[in-house]
Specification:
Order of helices and strands: HEHEHEEEEHHEEEHEEH
Largest sheet: 9 strands, mixed
Number of strands: 11
Structural class: alpha/beta
CATH architecture of one domain: 3-Layer(aba) Sandwich
Oligomer: single chain
Helix content: 25-40%
CATH topology of one domain: Rossmann fold
CATH superfamily of one domain: Brix domain
Distance between the termini: 123 Å
Strand order of the largest sheet: 2-1-3-4-5-9-8-7-6
CATH class of one domain: Alpha Beta
Strand content: 25-35%
Amino acid sequence: MLEIKTAKTHRGRRILEKRAPKLVENEKKTLFVHGTKTSNVLNSVLTELYHLKKENSVKYTRKNDKIRPFEAGGETNLEFFSQKTDCALFVFGSHSKKRPDNLVMGRFYDNHVYDLVEVGVENYRSLQSFSYDKKISPKMGSKPLIAFIGEGFESVDELKHLKEVLLELLRGEVIENLNLAGVDRIYVCTAISSNRVYLSHCALRLKKSGTVVPRMELVEVGPSMDLVVRRHRLPNEGLRKEAMKTAPDRTKKKLKNVKGDPLLGKTGKIYIPDQKLGDMAIPYKAKGVKRERREAKKNKGDADTQASKKQKGEEVST
């Protein structure tokens, strides 16, 4: 029998409530892990990626010799770290003769490895190798823009999968409104070939354009590198369907007799009861009604005058 641990303190209960499934999930955290052996290039890549996502990331510096993401049973330690740190993404770095400067990026679902993308790092340039004005350097916590350039991101399966993982890794918190003054950096991903992507990090400099919208100029601030796709593993169909499930939004009430039309837009039906004109109160203050009353009163008065003259024997004019 497995022992089920429950929280015994208020702090523990708050942590479990924070990690519980929600309709609107929290911002995804990233786990950075080192393998058995890493090179200086990989150490610099992991450190700078960690600093770019420092607010929502966890970095382990110790070497882990039992992590083999693409092998059966080799992802056990990664899943343990995911459960411990509540991370939904991970970046694993390793170096060997067969696969030098190797990065494995992936996602977790329910603390289990969801998918994997393995890339090799080439032509790496760190932050210190770029010279630029420090006033335009991106601020920590700012929302980045992400641009994917090239047809390969739409036609090649490996690059399509890499695009999904990079988008999850770099975009940060999902927001609805954005202030243009707070946009100060952009990630540019360019598909050079069917298995090579050039990744660069640029700062945005606002220039005068003569209009309300300013002109944006890109200044490369680093890091930049070539990512060569080596292996990738998609999730199986059952796991994908399970991860894509969404709970129904019960807060939104259904409107009766309302439907949407592609041409007319939002249309609806209304109920109008039968009009009973016999019971309707008619106002008698109209001018036409008053005139008719005056004419009827005048005719009645003339008839009474003629009748009284006739009784007296006077001559009645006709």
